[in-house]
Specification:
Elements: H1 2-27, E1 33-38, E2 50-52, E3 57-58, E4 60-61, H2 62-69, E5 74-86, E6 91-97, H3 106-112, E7 114-117, E8 127-131, H4 132-137, E9 145-148, E10 151-159, E11 172-175, H5 176-183, E12 189-190, E13 192-197, H6 203-214, E14 218-220, H7 222-228, H8 231-265, H9 267-275, H10 280-313, E15 320-323, E16 335-338, H11 348-374, H12 378-383
Helix pairs in contact: 1-7, 1-8, 1-10, 1-11, 8-11, 10-11
């Protein structure tokens, strides 16, 4: 009984842990979708230096962002700009952030992850916020200058990008207007839109609605990140409920087998009770109470064991997977991984289900086994062993 309860809790927690790991890269920026538009052309070979958009990305204008906001199910749609600066020895990533949008997207990083200085003021230009690792690598502090695309910017803040916000991580954050000027774009152009959906279950419908309004787009969602996590993550996320049910059924079978054996060993005792006047209902009730007590003990032990197993599962490395931007030493289209523990959480629903399985399994198995034993005549029960 304890084994069945422990399996149900552990397997359910494992599946939910993989699902939470998939959601983490978007959770830090409070977005359910990151929308980009494929360029559709053949990328030209990089031969020079300077600031440019990532290869293969086209732009959206403010009118298209408004159309995305009007899609049913969308709460917020915030535009941002990601650009690259190819220098003589390194390539850095730059995020253009709308100073007036701090609830979703990279603006949320500047609002929640500052470790020094401040964020941008609305309308402010020629200022920058640096990632902590970039600032440490180049020994740059608040109040100093940083050069991007041949222009100097005053460093007003430093942020530490948490693992759960890696989808919007950059080396340098600039006001959106400055980033657009560096990239040679108009004041109404961006190449990323961070979308917050009212109900995360509607992300597919929202993506379809956005495509219908603005044309073909590419969308990063929690489901797409689950696919990146590989077969183990997909199987665990999709079939954790089935696995938990199988674990519960296994617990019921084990309960039935154990209690049937327990009752069978006490057939002579049952015969003696019936010989002195006990009715079948009395015998069944007595064994049902005993089985209920065993079920309570099994549930307590199983829940404790399941919580311990879930705690051990939290040490499984679960990388946060995001589309990797160019690093300080080059650029890459690969997947960036940050090894962290699997975010396993034990839900009250799983604990309640485990307790129900143990109690129902023990009580049912004890009752059925006792009824089977009471079908024997007292005389036969007394000589059966």
């Amino acid at each position: 009984m304890a084994l069945g309860a422990a399996l149900l809790i552990a397997l359910t927690s494992l599946g939910s842990g993989f699902r939470e790991a998939a959601r983490a890269p978007l959770a830090g920026i409070a977005a359910d979708l990151v929308i980009t538009r494929p360029d559709g052309g053949i990328p030209s070979e990089q031969t020079g230096r300077g600031v440019r958009q990532p290869f293969g990305l086209s732009t959206f204008d403010t009118g298209e962002i408004g159309q995305m906001s009007a899609v049913p199910g969308v709460d917020t749609a915030v535009g941002a700009l990601q650009i690259w600066d190819f220098g003589p020895r390194s390539t850095i990533t730059i995020a253009g952030v709308d100073p007036g949008q701090r609830s979703v997207g990279p603006g949320r990083i500047l609002d929640h992850n500052l470790i020094a200085g401040r964020s941008f003021h609305p309308g402010e230009q020629r200022v920058a916020v640096l990632d902590r690792h970039y600032a440490a690598f180049y020994d740059t502090k608040v109040g100093q200058q940083v050069t991007v695309g041949g222009r100097d910017f005053s460093v007003v803040g430093v942020v530490e990008v948490k693992d759960s916000a890696q989808t919007a991580a950059s080396n340098i954050y600039l006001p959106l207007a400055d980033a657009q000027q560096l990239a040679g774009l108009a004041a109404n152009q961006v190449n990323q839109v961070h979308v917050q959906v009212g109900n995360s279950a509607d992300t597919e419908a929202v993506t379809a609605g956005i495509t219908a309004r603005v044309g073909q787009v590419s969308a990063i969602t929690a489901d797409s990140l689950v696919q990146i996590m590989g077969a183990v993550g997909r199987i665990s996320a999709r079939f954790s409920t089935i696995a938990a049910i199988i674990g519960g059924i296994g617990g019921l079978v084990l309960s039935w087998t154990a209690l049937r054996g327990l009752v069978s060993e006490r057939t002579r005792e049952i015969g003696l009770l019936m010989a002195v006047g006990w009715r079948r209902s009395h015998v069944v009730a007595a064994f049902r109470i005993e089985a209920l007590i065993l079920g309570l003990v099994g549930a307590a032990v199983g829940i404790a064991l399941g919580i311990v197993l879930a705690w051990l599962l939290s040490y499984i490395p679960a990388p946060d997977l995001v589309a990797a931007p160019p690093s300080m030493s080059g650029h890459s289209d690969a997947v960036q991984t940050t090894d962290t523990g699997l975010p396993v959480r034990v839900s009250l629903t799983a604990v309640g289900a485990a307790a129900l399985v143990s109690l129902a399994g023990a009580t049912g198995a004890g009752s059925l086994a006792a009824r089977r034993a009471t079908r024997l005549k007292p005389a036969r029960s007394l000589v059966s062993l």
